[in-house]
Amino acid sequence: MKKPFDLTGSVGKISIYNMRGFDEPIVRRKGGPTKKMVKNRASFETTRRNNSEFGGRAHIASLVMQILRPMKYVGDYNLAGPLTSLFIPIQVLDTVSEHGERNIELTKNPGLLTGFNLNRRTPFTNIITNPISYTLSKEKLSATVTIPELIPGANFFPQEQFTWYKFISILGVVEDVFYGARGYKTKAGYPLTPGYRVIEQTGWFNITPKSQAVTLTCSFNASPAEVIGSTEINNYSCLLAIGIAYGSMERGEVEMVKYVGGGKVLAME
User: Fold this and answer.
1) Which superkingdom, per the lineage (predicted)?
2) How far apart are CA 53 and CA 30, in angstroms?
């Protein structure tokens, strides 16, 4: 819905609502088949299979989003849809299971998530143009991220209205998702917990003509079996993310400004 119109809610057979990442309200038409029709009619068999597989992709996407949750306020749009779509080519790699029951084994091609951006307006690579050095070990569950020395206007392009910034690095474990009697689940069989990620961040820096290089180290200090809770599970990938947040001075302290900054999945293994 284009301006100057500015309303949300239901009007007749349409719904109007706001969505983060869009400047104007979104308009959609109500209607379509009922849940009972989709669940029971033979004509919706393909729809049921598609819905089942979508549920599997949504499940593993939720695991990734929970790992990235500490960077929630760095992003500027809803990640759920685009992230869920990224798992389609991974799901079709399962050529053994039937349609509707295909597994999502990220371990078969974890690189598909590398470079996934948390921002549309200000991608991380537009803020810091130099490559970010890193190490990542799936076996040791450890990683390092090194941000080079930054020179505004040369390799560092922060938003002009902010004078404070900090870096956040996350190392997380993402398990593959398999179809079973109770739908899609991980082999461990329980929901992801905060113990599946390690967060490191710098203090707040003031933007200066030149800043020194910074290294962040993330390590679980535990074996994969201890982190996942089983010695028999090898179906996991490691996700390494990097983000930059901006801050403003409020009442003598720097506070993070929400929904500005930049972040991305730096590497997967």
Assistant:
1) Bacteria
2) 24
β-pair partners for 201: 168
State which amino acid sits at residue 124. Answer: F
- Single-letter code of the amino acid located at 176: D
- C-alpha closest to that of 156 among 133, 119, 130, 128: 128
Q: What share of the chain is helix, strand, coil (3-state, %, to 5)?
A: 25, 35, 40
Question: Could you give the 3-state DSSP secondary structure of residue 264?
Answer: strand
Residues 267 and 252: their CA atoms lie apart, in Å, by 37
**CA triplet 96, 114, 18: central angle to 5 degrees?**
95
Give the type of residue at 43.
S
The pair of three-digit structure tokens given for residue 55, joined into one six-digit string: 């549920």
Mean pLDDT, each 10-residue run in order, the chain (269 residues): 73 78 78 68 82 92 93 91 94 94 93 93 95 94 96 94 94 93 80 73 93 95 80 84 93 89 96
Q: Where are the domains of the chain?
A: 45-268
CA–CA dist 49, 39 (Å, integer):
11
Confidence (pTM): 0.84
